[in-house]
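cron nightly-structures :: item 1 of 1
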Amino acid sequence: MGESHATWMGSAYLFVQSTSENILLSKLYGNPQRKPNVFKALKLALADSTGSFNGVDMLKVYCSDPQLIVQLKFSVKENCRRFLQSYREGVLRDALQRHLQVFLALNSLVPLQTELKAGVEKLDAMIREEERCLECIFGEKPNRLRDEEIAELEESLKNLNFSRGENSEKSCSSLDSSPQSPSSSLPSLNSLPSSLKSPPPSYHFVENSRPPPQSDTFTFQGQQFVNRRITSGDHQKFAKLVSKKWKQVGRSLQVGCRALQDPAIDNLALEYEREGLYEQAYQLLRRFIESEGKRATIQRLVAALEENGLISLAEELLGIPQGDNNS
């Protein structure tokens, strides 16, 4: 009963291994050129798992072929609870697979196998017993301070993140007149943004946040339209025309979409900053479509556009002739 946010502290070890014969994470992390990129992926995935960049601390990363072993420190019980929920539901693994793909410039996701331990206790075997897992983690106090190498990596990332602020306005105002294709090449290892904020822990998703069931038709500007699924053509038009307001539209689409819960949108902005506004917008809608499936309808997208004053873009997607606003 005496546990409080000020005194609660615990530790656990996260074991991560690629199941691909071609990817050995321990060797990648041991490579000075690749280490910062693997580290970025770990930091983003852990931020995803708690919904906060400061939700969990990495104290040290051990290379033990074929695994990486990450020593974690939790200072707030609720953050630890969120981490456990994210781990149990596969959100942490999925986020790490996605971030490794981006930061290592790979063509496909990195297949991963994970294990979680607190001392001698294997938490995977009891992962659905949340309180028991919390007790095990609370029972294991960190036996070390943060490793100097981890401190240096985090500091360098923070410095890079700070320096990007000077260029952010240029990036936002320089939408390429001939946008890249959605399958444009992934960023190189040394050119990726170093933001440390991303996908979307499912524990943020609550039942009553689901949008109401979509009907077969909907009304926009007094006209009836078929409530179809978003097409690839819609996707490309949205990415090309939404420009700087893609983040605001993303916030509107957040309702009921666990893949866009904070800090996912900020992460997308930073991960694809070098690719420009088109790619940022494209990736936002891609994530919405992949997460929502049949529920990724044109009605939801048009409503989000209308909410943010993007009427002309909504008209474009619905095929309404420009200037035909009175029918």
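cron nightly-structures :: done
The first strand starts at residue 10 and ends at 18.
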